[in-house]
Amino acid sequence: MILLLSLVVGFSAIVFFPSFSDAESEPKTFVTHSGAVVQTSGEIIDPLYTVSNVEFDPDEFLRNFEYGRVSISESGQTIRDYTIIAEDDRVQEISPGIFFNVWTFNGTVPGPTIRATEGDIVRINFINNGSKEHTMHFHGIHPAGMDGVFEPVGGNGGQFVYEFEAGPVGVHPYHCHIMPLEEHIVRGLYGVFIVDPKEERPPADEMVMVLNGLDMDFDGENNFYAANTIPFYYQHHPIQINANELIRVYVVNMVEFDPINNLHLHGNLYRYNPTGTDTDSFYTDMITLSQTERGIMEFEYTYPGKYLFHAHKVEFSEKGWVGIFLVKDNSDKTTQDAEYGT
Ligand SMILES: [Cu+2]
């Protein structure tokens, strides 16, 4: 089995050698072992769902924010209730022909992006339907008993309610904190927690990028890298944005094993606010992130066209961590802006 896997991985390294040309091979549609119908060009999984929660769609994940079930406490505080279910028996096709036993929060890697406003009560009904102990450890400020470290939640239906005030403002990771931690993380038990300021940030086209790596052969080194799990996905499915529109990316590095990751944007620079906790930012086209380092990128494109974003650690980009922004000519908005003199 290990031999077979290494053959597959070795073969895929040839297949996945990135090409930045427009030419793509003819897509083929097939049914995976898990019952999902997918389309692949041989380089990239392109999900066409028949089973809604089996596979993972990076397009859907990119701009999806979970605000929870909202109620108001007697004291007037907003309460956001979430149900998060951990599992560790799913097998997901990460790339064509490459299957991986993912451990998931609510069925996907990364888990859902949990979003609240500073001061809201976040209440998470955590259910562990896996076979091993798992927890949810949030980065941020909360009581010790809500830290998801010393309160392991048993498998086969174990439950725990995490409850804390959302804070501080920023973008934070959450992840399982059971040992061996690197296995619980590299298998996929992580996600993003956004805490919005009470005074809203300026309107923007917002998206989440979780930088992750996949160790397919369990040798402590990643074989694939990605923004949002599927290698090369946004290269083949460029993220469409408008020229002259503010883009805000919440970026979180969850790559295990490698000490650093980084992010370079082409044809532009961005304002980067580390951890999203402050209004201060610096202006760059390149950030370097260790594991769980994260922040908020903001930028606008002036010129339409295709622009790469990728790890400038070339090994990572050649193994999948590369994507494209397709900047559309937003001339209507430009005209409107001109009319209003903004
Ligand atoms: Cu775990």
Features of this protein?
342 residues, mainly beta, 6-stranded mixed beta sheet, 23 strands, 13% helix, binds copper (II) ion
List the helices and strands and how they pair.
Layout: H1 2-15, E1 28-31, E2 37-40, E3 45-48, H2 58-62, E4 69-72, E5 78-95, E6 98-105, E7 114-117, E8 121-128, E9 137-138, E10 158-165, E11 170-175, H3 181-186, E12 190-196, E13 205-214, E14 224-227, H4 233-236, E15 239-242, E16 247-253, E17 261-265, E18 270-274, E19 282-284, E20 286-289, E21 294-299, E22 305-310, H5 314-318, E23 322-328, H6 331-340
Parallel strand pairs: 5-8, 7-12, 13-16, 15-23
Antiparallel strand pairs: 1-2, 2-3, 4-5, 5-6, 8-10, 9-11, 11-12, 13-14, 16-21, 17-20, 17-22, 18-19, 18-21, 22-23
The structure holds copper (II) ion (CU).
Copper (II) ion is lined by residues 134, 176, 178, 184, 189.
Brief synopsis:
By secondary structure, the chain is mainly β.
Account of the protein in words:
The chain is mainly beta. The chain is built from six helices and 23 strands. The chain has helices at 2-15, 58-62, 181-186, 233-236, 314-318, 331-340, and strands spanning 28-31, 37-40, 45-48, 69-72, 78-95, 98-105, 114-117, 121-128, 137-138, 158-165, 170-175, 190-196, 205-214, 224-227, 239-242, 247-253, 261-265, 270-274, 282-284, 286-289, 294-299, 305-310, 322-328. It has a six-stranded mixed beta sheet with strand order 14-13-16-21-18-19, with no helix packed on it. It is globular, with a radius of gyration of 20 Å. 40% of the residues are buried. Bound molecules: copper (II) ion. Copper (II) ion binds at residues 134, 176, 178, 184, 189.
